[in-house]
Amino acid sequence: MQEYRKQRKIEHIENYLRSFTKSDPLFNDVYIEHRALNEINFDEIDTSVEFLGKKLPFPLMINAMTGGSDMSSDINEDLSNICYEFKIPMAVGSQKIVLEDDSLIDSFKVVKEMSDGEFPVIGNLNANCSIEELKKASDLIDATAMQLHLNSAQELVMPEGDRNFKGIYDNIKKLVKEFDKDIIVKEVGFGIGKKDIELLNEIGVKYIDISGHGGTNFIEIEDMRNFDMDFSDLYNWGIPTAKCLIDAKKVQGDFKIISSGGVSNANYIVKSLILGADICAMSGEILSYLLRGGYDYTINFIKELMYKTKMIMALLGVKNIEQLKKVDYKLTGKLRQLCK
Questions:
Q1: Which of 56, 132, 282, 283 has its CA 20 to 30 A from that of 290?
Q2: CA distances from 233 to 21, 187, 223, 225 (A)
Q3: Inter-CA distances, 128 with 101, 193, 258, Å
Q4: Cα 276 off chain centre by
Q5: C-beta neighbour count of 50 within 10 angstroms
Q6: CA-based Rg of the chain, rounded to a whole angstrom?
Q7: Average pLDDT over every residue of 138-161
Q8: Is 244 helix (H, G, I), strand (E, B) or coil?
Q9: For strand 60-62 and strand 279-282, is the pairing parallel, antiparallel, or unpaired?
Q10: Contact between residue 26 and residue 271 where contact means Cβ atoms under 8 Å apart
Q11: Residues of 114-139 as b/e, b for ≥16 C-beta within 10 angstroms?
Q12: What are the residues whose beta carbons fall under 8 Å from the beta carbon of 152, sequence distance 6 or more?
């Protein structure tokens, strides 16, 4: 089983790089207005935010990707070095594989070793895990927080995937009560809508990663591994990321929203924060830059993200994230229709 999981993780990376579907998170349907008299000193713009009890210099985290193989170990080492340089959080891929085989821990442990407390490290398990598994996964990497991922669409395309999702909500409720660290509930690319955000808020989930439709498409990625059925007619399944954010803003509660799912540039980061996100997350975009361009190429990409985000903030006439969240916007096109 361990060898099978290792091979599957490698296939996920390879299939992501081969994927061709261009989903739309609908951020281009969010109109924000240029301020000619912005009265801003670019050098005084503050992009820092509070997240998981730490002050981050920029509202971005590298989201869950991989772990459990030699290839994964190299990727995670580079990603953790990037997070160390920018002091931004990093989430590892699902740790289920290492719970079954401790010998595979190095691909995850490298993140803990590189962090040295300088950036938040976030573990990852399926939302149907036990409290014992959650604690063990957390201890293995000295996690700041743990992600519980929801991936029913992905599982249903996997030939070997789960088919029974009963009891997951009650299990999350139990884990929130019994686990002594913060829990982030996240989708894997199909979105968390208003009804589910309300349910998660009711049981005390403090961090929700909406992971909307628009980024990595796990129906397509798993479809490349499934030779018995064709799921290409479902590649557009999911809630667009921009709509997830608007839905989340309507829910009254004490929780923070992570915007992910096609958040691929500074414009989308800014619009995510305007729509209500507290921080943004990238995975596939970072992976693509890393594997296709290399470490330095990825570093330059993130530096450009930071500069362009500040640039847009200057052109909107805001000097910090708190002011950015109050910027007026209008909805157009498909997003406007969906949010009526």
A1: 56
A2: 11, 21, 11, 16
A3: 19, 20, 21
A4: 15
A5: 13
A6: 19
A7: 94
A8: helix
A9: parallel
A10: no
A11: bbeeebbbbbbbbbbbeeebbbbbbe
A12: 162, 165
- Tell me the two tokens of residue 185: 């509930």
Convert the pLDDT of each residue in 271-307 to its tens digit.
999 999 999 999 989 999 999 999 999 999 999 999 9
The distance from CA 178 to its chain's CA centroid, rounded to whole angstroms, is 24
Of 3, 27, 103, whose CA–CA distance to 280 is shortest? 27
Cα–Cα distance, 324 to 317 (Å, whole number): 9
For residue 4, what pLDDT band results from cuts at 50, 70 and 90?
very low
| Both structure tokens of 331 | 């909805």
Q: Which of 96, 162, 173, 191 is nearest to 134 (CA)?
A: 96
89: nearest Cα among 147, 13, 16 = 147
Task: State both tokens at 120.
Answer: 């938040």
Helix (H) or strand (E) holding 241: helix 241-249
Q: Which amino acid is it at 340? A: K
- Token pair 């002594």: residue: 180
Contact of 284 with 7, CB cutoff 8 Å? no
Residues 6 or more apart in contact with residue 109 via CB below 8 angstroms = 140, 141
Alpha carbons 76 and 159: distance in angstroms, whole number: 27
Residue 197: which of 217, 211, 216 has the closest Cα? 211
